[in-house]
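INTERNAL AUDIT FORM
Audit reference: QA-55
Scope: verify that the stored structure record matches its stored sequence.
Auditor: D.O.
Record contents follow.
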Amino acid sequence: MNGKKITQLFKIYWPDNGGGIAKVMESIAGGLPEYRQEIIVCQQERHKKSTRDCYQGVPVFRCRQWFDLLSTPVSFRYLYEVKKRTKDSDLVIYHFPYPVADLAVLLGLYSGKLVVWWHCGYENYRWLAPFYRPLVWHTLKKADRIFVSSKGNIPNSQIPKRYWKKCRVVPFSVSDACLERGRAYAAKCAGQDPERSGQERVTILFIGRLVWYKGCDILLRAFAQMRELGCRLVLVGAGPLEQELKKLSCSLGLSDVEFTGMVSEEEKMRRIEQCDFLVLPSTSKAEAFAVVQLEAMAFAKPVINTALPSGVPTVSIDGITGKTVAPGSVRELAGAMRELAEDEALRRKYGRNALRLVQNRYTQELMVERYRSVLHELNAELPSKHRKQKEYTKHKKYRKQEKQGMQV
């Protein structure tokens, strides 16, 4: 099969599991149809046999997972597949962090040019940081380019300064389907009360995995400080802290909190339509961007986020599309939620600005253009390893034929 090839590396992918990184992988797979593409990930379940399937027309190799270490699936088959599947790759895109992929880079198992998509730091590996850091730096040294989602992620990340010249900013985007639906919803609601499925109370929404850096405990404590307003809080998502957060909600005496668990994309869109504003109370720069902000903004919904040293506060801008508060501050978060809950005119103003910002900066078309620009840079540079080998083989074959011709 002709054409250039991209191979993407990470630990999980749709439909087993996903999140923001899976959406980025999907945007590459669907947004660059001129490339042949493959994706290599791990099986979600331990000891499940390796499989090959297709997701939206792109081959996905799911490698057998032997064990799990600090939420990291470890697979020896993964190393084999990287070596085998990248032999004819022009470009390998590694979605950081996944230590097994770093090991594949260290062992030189990949072929083609290497792009590291720096989604977040490796705070969750803090106990192994002294051992993992040299591996990370080696990966960044080998990388031809490093993608980050915003300029704010460069000086505040753990990327050593000597590698910053390799960095290219490629902001995330909302899908065309999400933006189209959001525009239609905003137009329908212009000049009238937002639909709340019969709910007259203000509805506050959180969407994300229930993990340590999302700050959901802060959200619940802040919500408890504004209970006299009669608002409703909905948490969409699942994760290891789900039961702990439910217990906290009960101990705070919160009766107007709903935990939905994992939901479909359709249900997520419906929940955004029904809410009055989104809250992203993240407490660590492990939250590097948060695509869910864009999804809410596409429906003209204000966002309350936190002033993290990452790309988060550059997505929804304080005083323009919502409010930004100090990470971990129950008092500030409660104050911001109270302000938006009590001021419908302000919510509408922020919502209009939010939709306009998404349309101007965060469309899928713009993101794909940025990808193509960087790929054009790489294609204009020196050939990748396997192309050098092809040229050498071709030259060797030509010299052999030339020599045979001279002998005749």
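Auditor finding: record pair retrieved intact. The first strand starts at residue 5 and ends at 9.
Action required: none
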